Amino acid sequence: MMRQLIREIVETTGRWNVVGEAGTGFEAIRLLHTEKPDVLTLDLEMPDLGGVETLGYIMSELPRPVVIVSSHTERMADPALRALEYGAVEYVVKPGSDPAQQEEFEERLLNALDAALHARLRNLRLRIAVAGALQRARRIRQKQRPATCAVAIAASTGGPSALLDLVAALPEDTACAVFIVQHMPSTFTERFAERLGAECALPVSVARDLELVRGGHVYLGPGTHHLSLTRTQDGICVQLLDEPPLRGVRPAADVLFTAVARTFGPASLGVVLTGMGRDGAEGMRALHTVGARTIAQDEASAVIAGMPRAAAPYSDEILPLPAIGGRITTIARELQSAR
């Protein structure tokens, strides 16, 4: 039924042609060898060879842009994140029987296919977790002080792998609070925070409403709310906004960046990474206006260049991904020393 629905959606556009269907992982691999499609949709739950294993083979032997179309459950969070780390371009949640869900699915699927078609596969790094890597030893500072500076980072398509590289570059003595908005299904954010925490020398958590913002802590925006900030008598606190998606996304980087500009002013840094669309551009303009520092990933190293391209007019620096982590560290130290 799902394959039939995907076929109907894709072929109705007149821009795509379905060259084959496969019901198992082994069938998908055989199909790739014979048909060589431009883009592949892949379910994570398949008989015989599972979706993650199939994807691992595809990306190592027959690299193709892959869009995952699978369930939206806590149980699927770990394989979904593994799929994104293994090189899947996008993840689209299967719809229920509600017509509104089916309409949303159609829009998201077509957007994901377009993103996959234009993705730069050379910039998708295959990340195969080594046993024990998630238990990487790190010291967590017990006494975290209220933050006096902030780093705000936005990413979408291609973002999970880029963010894992980025947080790994943050040193333990980072004094600024770090906020991250990554567009992904809401049930995956807790697991993704754990993955970021395994790579980062700083504590990482999904942001909680009204918690006090601490320096040297990484806050990941939940998929159910926009991530904002507010000033209270205790200091700057997280504010989760239960509002509709902004230009199709929630959490939206524009909401976060605007809040950081308002609360931290020039003692802040905005970073826009790979992603489709233009989320973050207006927020970067707000940061730039208050004298904050701003960085956009360069198009050559982005999987999808839409977001960083839109943010470029308001960016002080445009850098390749491998250079951004070190630059964040340098600027964060400058912001802290200026306080």
Chain-wise SSE layout:
Layout (H helix, E strand, L loop, with lengths): L1 H11 L12 H11 L4 E3 L8 H11 L4 E5 L6 H10 L3 E4 L5 H19 L32 E6 L3 H10 L8 E6 L6 H11 L4 E3 L11 E3 L5 E7 L2 E7 L11 H12 L3 E5 L8 H9 L3 E5 L8 H6 L5 E3 L1 H17 L2
Parallel strand pairs: 1-2, 2-3, 4-5, 4-10, 5-7, 6-7, 10-11, 11-12
Antiparallel strand pairs: 8-9
What does the model show?
The protein has a seven-stranded parallel sheet with strand order 6-7-5-4-10-11-12, sandwiched between helices. It has a three-stranded parallel sheet with strand order 1-2-3, sandwiched between helices. Strands 8-9 form a two-stranded antiparallel ribbon. The protein starts with a helix and ends with a helix. The chain has two domains: 2-123, Response regulator (Rossmann fold), CATH 3.40.50.2300; 144-337, Rossmann fold, CATH 3.40.50.180. Helices cover 37% and strands 17% of the residues. The protein is α/β, with parallel strands linked by helices. It has helices at residues 2-12, 25-35, 51-61, 77-86, 99-117, 159-168, 189-199, 253-264, 281-289, 306-311, 321-337; strands at residues 40-42, 66-70, 90-93, 150-155, 177-182, 204-206, 218-220, 226-232, 235-241, 268-272, 293-297, 317-319. The chain has eleven helices and twelve strands. Helix 3 (51-61) runs parallel beside helix 4 (77-86), helix 6 (159-168) packs parallel to helix 7 (189-199) and helix 8 packs parallel to helix 9 (281-289).
